[in-house]
Automatic annotation (TrEMBL):
Pfam families: Metalloenzyme (PF01676). Its EC number is 5.4.2.7. Pathway: Carbohydrate degradation; 2-deoxy-D-ribose 1-phosphate degradation; D-glyceraldehyde 3-phosphate and acetaldehyde from 2-deoxy-alpha-D-ribose 1-phosphate: step 1/2. Binds 2 manganese ions. It comes from the Bacteria. InterPro entries: Alkaline_phosphatase_core_sf (IPR017850), DeoB (IPR010045), Metalloenzyme (IPR006124), Phosphopentomutase_DeoB_cap_sf (IPR024052). Keywords: Cytoplasm, Isomerase, Manganese, Metal-binding. GO terms for cellular component: cytosol. This is Phosphopentomutase. Its main location: cytoplasm. GO terms for molecular function: magnesium ion binding; manganese ion binding; phosphopentomutase activity.
Length: 398
């Protein structure tokens, strides 16, 4: 059959074990879901993900507290990434059959003077920090200075990102965005090519009470070619982006977009869209797992966010129509029990479910690229994609 509506939900950073090339990234031993399960000592309650087959993905080493389903009500597997990086942009682009094959620029020693001086000249503000830093720690350590001086806190991570933090009462959000848009023009190649410029506004009276706000905005590199989203839109299908999807693809291929204040706000948008009679693809990113808990190495908060999502997933499953297809995956890992504060190179879970599935409980195996997700969506709608991935549509229908 042809599914009239496909929902793809990306649990940002929810990896399910080290990738085959994890050692190359220094991430051997990373296991986001496995380590969260162990941290919770069997009390990680994810009944809806469990019945879809989350622990069936790794039956020899199920996630503690998440029993294997016999049989699973969905199909299950995992996906390995072929892109050169382990950033959200790389992962999402690859899902839509545009893998990032050339490593983007990273700055382990901070950004060069040529970039910093232009940022200062454009903004009329001094740049401070300019080195890899945890996003929460950098505002704790430098936020009070930024409030006094009006400087720009510029920092990076192990990914290809340039991040600018500023207190909303000192630098208005629109001014911060304007500076980030200018920064975007400085790193589009050929000398430096950066995946994302991220505006990181925060509020609070002092370093012990600073909180980053939902006014974060990602200014991503323009897609270097057409993605499956472009092909779907060109074919006249609805393409709905929820969360930072619109940012990641710079608006390309999106017919309607929703900004998320939080994971739960994102799920509110999902509930709303499920009531609509659209025909096409709804692409969802839930970023709190990554931004709020993964980078902060907070397994307790990460697990709580997973359990909160699982409850909302129950509503999604109840509201699905016979001709709906749900695909759940992730874009990379961010193991809260791992060393450092960066993303981790992991395989990602793959869960597929429709009320019309005739033979659920099938293993989809280990997919060789995230692009298999896009290839499946394209085959479903009868639209030619980039021919990078291999569709698993037949596997979930047989």
């Amino acid at each position: 059959m042809t599914y009239q509506r496909v929902f793809g939900i990306v649990l940002d950073s929810v990896g399910i074990g080290e990738a085959p090339d994890a050692l190359k990234f220094g991430d051997d031993g990373a296991d986001t879901l496995g380590h969260i399960g162990k941290w919770y000592q069997g009390k990680l309650a994810l009944p809806n993900l469990a019945k879809l087959g989350l622990s069936n993905i790794r039956p020899a080493d199920p996630i503690q507290g998440v029993p294997t389903a016999d049989p699973a009500m969905g199909c299950f597997g995992k996906m390995a990434e072929i892109s050169a990086g382990k950033d959200s942009m790389d992962g999402h682009w690859e899902m839509m059959e545009l893998p990032v094959k050339k490593p983007l620029s990273t700055f382990p020693n901070g950004f060069p003077d040529s970039i910093i001086q232009k940022l200062e000249a454009f903004s009329g503000r001094k740049v401070i920090v300019n080195k890899p830093y945890s996003g929460t720690e950098v505002i704790h350590d430098y936020g009070e200075q930024q409030m006094k001086t009006g400087d720009l806190i510029v920092y990076t991570s192990g990914d290809s990102v340039l991040q600018i933090a500023a207190h909303e009462d000192v630098i208005p959000v629109e001014e911060l965005y304007r500076t980030c848009r200018y920064a975007r023009t400085l790193v589009n190649g050929p000398e430096y090519t950066v995946g994302r410029i991220i505006a990181r506004p925060y509020v609070g009276p002092d370093k012990d009470h600073f909180v980053r706000t939902a006014n974060r905005h990602d200014f991503s590199l323009e897609p270097t070619g057409e993605t499956d989203l472009d092909h779907l839109k060109a074919a006249g299908l609805d393409v709905i982006g929820i969360g930072k999807i619109n940012d990641i693809f710079s608006g390309h291929g999106i017919t309607e977009g929703y900004h998320n204040e939080s994971n739960m706000d994102g799920m509110d948008h999902v509930d709303h869209v499920m009531k609509e009679d659209f025909h096409g693809f709804c692409f969802v990113n839930l970023v709190d797992f990554d931004a709020m808990y993964g980078h902060r190495r907070n397994p307790e908060g990460f697990g709580k966010a997973l359990m909160d999502f699982d409850q909302r997933l129950g509503t999604v499953l109840e509201n699905m129509r016979e001709d709906d297809l749900l695909l759940i995956t992730a874009d990379h890992g961010n193991d809260p029990c791992f060393r450092g504060t960066d993303h981790t190179r992991e395989v990602t879970p793959l869960l597929a479910y429709s009320p019309s599935m005739k033979h659920p409980g099938q293993s989809l195996g280990t997919r060789g690229t995230f692009a298999d997700l896009g290839a499946t969506i394209m085959e479903n709608f009868g639209v030619a994609g980039n021919q990078v991935g291999t569709s698993f549509l037949a596997a979930i229908e047989n």
